[in-house]
Amino acid sequence: MAAIARSSSPSPLLGLALPAALVAVWEVLGRAGVVPQGILPAPSLVAATWWDWAVGPSGMGLNPYLGTWFETVLFSARRVFTGFAAAIALGVPLGIMIGWNRLVAGAFDPLIQSLRPIPITAWLPFSIAVFGIRDAGAVFLIGLGAFFPIVVNTTAGARDTPRNLIRAARMMGASERQLLLRVVLPNALPAIFTGMRLGLGIAWTAVIVAEIVAVKSGLGYVLWDAYYVGRMDVVIADMVSIGIAGFLSDRILVAIGHRVLHWKQFGAR
Amino acid sequence: MAAVDIAGVRKVFGGRAGEVEALAAIDMALVEGEFACILGPSGCGKSTLLNIIAGFEGLTAGEARVFGEGVARPGPDRAVVFQEASLFPWLTVWDNVTFGPRMLGRPKEETDALARKYLGLVGLAGFENHLPDQLSGGMKQRVGIARCLILSPRVFLMDEPFGALDAQTRMQMQELLLHVWDETRGTVLFITHDIDEAIFLADTVYVMTARPGRIRSRIPIDLPRPRTIEVLTDPRFNALRADILHQIREEASKATREFEEAERSARR
């Protein structure tokens, strides 16, 4: 009986129990005044702040956050999307070529491997010096951060194209170009999606860092700005917003992946 | 003109551990429409010979010609059926079969008609939209055969295509292949280590020596066609079988002996 109970998947409610308990404890501690509201505001206060931030009438005097949530999220999401798209546009073709061609690998691999260990945060001064306090700097950081996992995984995916698939395509008359587009690229797609998921996670980290330091809008900017004026309720609402945005964008990517990699759901591999 | 003409082909693989001579000096000629089987102990270089004719591997010395043309690279005039079907897992059966004509830019109507014809011939009508991972091993090989037929190749090269199948399926596939061959009458070079399979299928069986590979003997199979399973109990079949088995045994034990000698000298 125990084995049967274990093999059936647990109810999703189980996963919600722990977060719900934490929120409840936090609420009680907050209301009891154990933790000052200025440091750790109760969840109910955060929720109310969030409501105002999201749907409040904008431009109403003292609260600069009223009604600006969607706009703020859009600023960040647009930067993530732009940088991420640039990273894909550059990383996928380059990764395919590195995985396919030894000359390209010899030329690019050492450069990529030596730049890759530099954390994205270390690029901040460089980025500001080159691009100034503008969108381009944020997009550069996001693109750079997402580029490395994409290019490295694409390279690995292209490299392990089975030899007989390449031979089969050549035997059937495929040109080198067709071979890359019709065999090497589809074979690398599962690895490319893995790289894209890792890259997207880094992109959200990068956008927050960039907005804290290098631009004056978006979730990262609001996060730091709210901290400076002591609005911890906004800070926490902002943190949760970042988490939700990252989670949703990952879900979207996974859904696209399932569509594109439709053949993967069959068989044991 | 010979369909396949192999003259003095030698192949040496270079490696850090030293050179290995895979093929010593192969001479053979297939006429158009001939079904030839190459039979040999494992490691004798029979797949290497096929890879050279396919254009997958270069040769160290000698010449490989297909209908008079020297082999330079792989191409749709020499279709290959691999041991592992090697289908594209992301393409449906239909798209796998039409892959070649699409790469070659052949007209769609013609390609569609041929795809339907050959999928029917190999018994896969109704499986057009299946993915390779949804098919059994035998069905995958049927797709592998159909995608070769649609190329209208001048030579079929088959590298132990049924070697990974169970005995039952293997026999079915052998009969299917003979049926397809009766319909199309292409030139076939078929690699195998299964003596029964070689005799059952071939007009000519070439027995290879242990490494370095040479052609040890060329045995015409004069069993009447079309052949069915009944031929397996024919006394002539058994006589051929005994003769070839004897030759293969000798080659296999020679290979073992050489291996042991090499081991001994390495230990010294």
Count of alpha and pi helical runs of chain B: 8
CATH overall fold name of the domain at 83-261 in chain A:
MetI-like fold
The CATH architecture of the domain at 83-261 in chain A: Orthogonal Bundle
Number of strands of chain A: 0
Mean pLDDT reading of chain A: 90
Secondary structure class of chain B reads alpha/beta
CATH topology of the domain at 1-70 and 200-268 in chain B: Rossmann fold
Quickly name the level 1 CATH class of the domain at 83-261 in chain A: Mainly Alpha
pLDDT < 50 stretches of chain A: 1-5
The total beta strand count of chain B reads 10
CATH class of the domain at 1-70 and 200-268 in chain B: Alpha Beta
Largest sheet of chain B: 6 strands, mixed
Order of helices and strands of chain A: HHHHHHHHHHH
Percent of residues in beta strands of chain A: under 5%
Q: β content of chain B, as a range?
A: 15-25%
Please describe the topology of this protein.
The complex is a heterodimer of chains A (269) and B (268).
Chain A: H1 2-7, H2 12-32, H3 43-55, H4 69-100, H5 102-115, H6 124-131, H7 135-159, H8 163-171, H9 176-213, H10 219-228, H11 232-260
Chain B: E1 4-13, E2 20-30, E3 35-39, H1 46-54, E4 61-66, E5 69-70, E6 78-81, H2 93-97, H3 99-104, H4 108-121, H5 137-149, E7 155-159, H6 167-184, E8 187-192, H7 195-201, E9 204-208, E10 215-220, H8 235-267
Parallel strand pairs in B: 3-8, 3-9, 6-7, 7-8
Antiparallel strand pairs in B: 1-2, 1-4, 4-5, 9-10
Helix pairs in contact in B: 4-5, 7-8
